[in-house]
Amino acid sequence: SESAIIHAFPFNSEKKRGGVAVLRGDSEVFIHWKGAAEIVLACCTQFMDSNGTLQPIDNQQEFFRLAIDSMAKNSLR
Question: Which keywords, in A-to-Z order, does the entry hold (predicted)?
Answer without folding.
Answer: Magnesium
